[in-house]
Amino acid sequence: MSEPGFDYRRLTVNERLRLVGDIWDSIAEEAQANPNVLPLTDVQRAELDQRRAEHQRDPGSAVPWNEAMGRMRSRLRHRRGDR
Hints:
Layout: H1 13-33, H2 42-57, H3 65-80
């Protein structure tokens, strides 16, 4: 990996987080315009096909995104002892 054009380590943590978010958003935009930018592996494609088939068999088993995120955050807090 080559050296970056600027020293990102001089940025504050918040500035670096924003930079990472901006970079991620730019990748997502490009991938949305051209899906071949980030091709799936055969294993990833098979996993998605399996999940789609499971959902089609039982659509009621789906969990809303905010509920899934809430569960993950709760587990993380529990592991850290935050409760």
